[in-house]
User: Fold Ig-like domain-containing protein from Oncorhynchus kisutch.
Amino acid sequence: MSNCVSVVLSQKGWSVTYTTQSICTLKGSTVEMSCSYTYPSGTVTTTFWFTKKYAVENYVNLRNDSNYKGRVTYRSDKMNGHNLTITDLRESDSAMYKFRFITDQTGGKYTGDPGVTLSVTDLQVKVTTTWWSTTLTCSTTCTLTGNPTYTWYRNSKIVQDDSSPSYTVYFKTEDSFYCAVKGINSNAVSVEGHSYFHVTYTHQRICTLKRSSVDISCSYTYPSGHTVSETIWYTKGKLNEVPQILSLGYGGRVEYLGNMQSDSILRITDLREEDSAEYKFRFTTWEPTFPGTTLTVTDNTAGHILSILQTIT
Assistant:
């Protein structure tokens, strides 16, 4: 969005400068457009905004347009500035808005052309599903003006407040999700029935005493048909492929508990200050979906040759 865009079809001192050339905003919200204007002499007698012109000098003042009844406010200042505010925006309000002023001088009329393009859109949640996650995207038909914050709700509770319009779900759920921008909500969607790889830690932070013991626990999910083949706890940035935390400094003080299929507990005893770190859990699964080898035993030579050919192909 430009800070100040001068629109000049200039005639000796006549001009209209709009604050911005285009605005994309949400259905149901409020928008404000502003401009400043100059003229060579006389006194301004009339100012108005319009989108429709039916004939020469037949402009439809927005205040008199039945489609905008009760939703339009004008505000002027002493420095030749003029603001237009439209409330409860509708998609049908999408149009080119122009400012026109008239003075008491002969021929003293001027329109700021081309004007401000207003695009009104609604919020829609688009769902993209992969084998391991579902991404929900707060979608609009144009890029919203002003780098808005997108708030994501899960069952009416905020789960993300960010400049990114997307939110990714990694777990099986039957919850309802929707997004909002400046108090305007999207439609709600459900991601029921999906099951993904996901780890949930019981505690995000633990503070405990030196020489004590600690249990760091988590639960994890994965799609049906998978079997957990390996579990590993590690410190961030120091992944050890052996199913045990780095042996240096931890020898004899580490124990894995839990059923190893849906939850795991890392127990560290005789804690030391150097044990302070971020601990993460990783699991590996095997999915038995690939075809194996079919063995056919026969005393028929032709059948034996066929079996070899089947093996090769």
Notes: The chain has three domains: 5-121, 124-190, 198-286. Confidence is low (pLDDT under 50) at residues 1-9, 238-244, 303-313. The longest helix spans residues 301-312. The longest strand covers residues 44-55.
